[in-house]
Each structure stands twice: as C-alpha cells, then as structure tokens.
Specification:
This protein has four helices and nine strands. It is of the alpha+beta class. Pathway: Protein modification; protein ubiquitination.
C-alpha cells in the first residue's frame, strides 16, 4: 500500500492483533497475508429453493444454513476455558441465485473456511456475553419480507456484502488462493 511505519509500531500492531499471520494497514485497511478469525467450529450448508426473493423475481433462492453448537472457548477467544452459548442456531440466510448471488456464496464459503463469519463475544441485541455473534459480514435472514431490515428487497445488499467481504480480505483473488 505504500504507507510507512516505524518498526516498533509494526511490531506493536502485530502483537496487539490476532496473530493469525496477517497484518492490516491502519491507514488504508490493506491486508497483508491471509486474515483468519476466531469462529467456533460448526457447519455451513447451502441449497437452492424454488422460490424467488422480493426484488429478485427472475431467479430462485440460495438458502445458507449455519449451525454452531455451544462449547468451550479456546485460547483465541475472550475467556479461554469458559463455556459459550450459541443462540438462534441453526441460522438461515438467503441470497438470490443470480450470478452476483453465486459469487457472494463462493466468497462466504471462503470466509467460513477462514473462520470470519462468526465470533465469540457480547451480543449487541441481547447484551449476553460469551455467545456466538455475527462478525461484520451482514446476512439476510428474513425470507419473504424486509420487516426487520434483514430481508429483501434491498438493492444494495449484494454490493454491500461484497465490500464487507473485501474489508475482511475476501475477494475474487481469494477464490484462486483457495484452489492452490
């Protein structure tokens, strides 16, 4: 990226980061290395359902199902050795089965493999600590409407989630890296 930092500042950034082998420029957010998260173990599945989402009447729907069970926090979590809850699982999320929707799905699969979709932390909804929470990559969890703001139609969603994925270091180049 071209930004210059003192060696001691770089060492401090690394030591205060998640020590996953990546470093992110604090100025422009460029990620060096492969960023990984602290998502607990679980399962991600997807399939096509023969119904259209509001605003996407020309295609079917991709349903993603995430399932993470409760467990014990590891050394990468806020309170190692303490149990964590996993409320609201399995979680169902929806994408249009369009070219851009399939691209988002492929990138979400990379984000899942890199443990970036969920984290253990404090829920902004309930205030509960030591629970599985979303981790800065928004998902649409409402199928037939947009009453809560987590559904369709949302003409900017696919572009917004692509930007959120890119901010986590997940881009089309990531797809090529995953194949290597």
């Amino acid at each position: 990226c071209g930004h210059v930092f003192h060696l001691h500042c770089l060492v401090a950034m690394y030591n205060n980061g998640n020590k996953d082998g990546s470093l992110q420029c604090p100025t422009c957010k460029t990620i060096y290395g492969v960023k990984t998260g602290t998502q607990p173990p679980g399962k991600m599945e997807y399939h096509i359902i023969p119904h259209a989402l509001p605003g996407h009447s020309d295609c079917k729907t991709i349903r993603i199902i995430y399932n993470i069970p409760p467990g014990v926090q590891g050394p990468e979590h806020p309170n190692p050795g303490k149990s964590f809850t996993a409320r609201g699982f399995p979680r169902h999320c929806y994408l249009p089965d369009s070219e851009k929707g399939r691209k988002v799905l492929k990138l979400l699969l990379v984000a899942w493999d890199r443990r970036l979709i969920f984290a253990v932390g404090t829920s902004s909804t309930t205030g509960e600590s030591d629970t599985v929470i979303w981790n800065e990559i928004h998902h649409k969890t409402e199928f037939g409407s947009n009453l809560t703001g987590h559904g369709y139609p949302d003409i900017n969603y696919l572009d917004n989630v692509l930007a959120e994925l890119a901010a986590q270091g997940i881009t089309e180049e990531s797809l090529a890296q995953e194949k290597d």
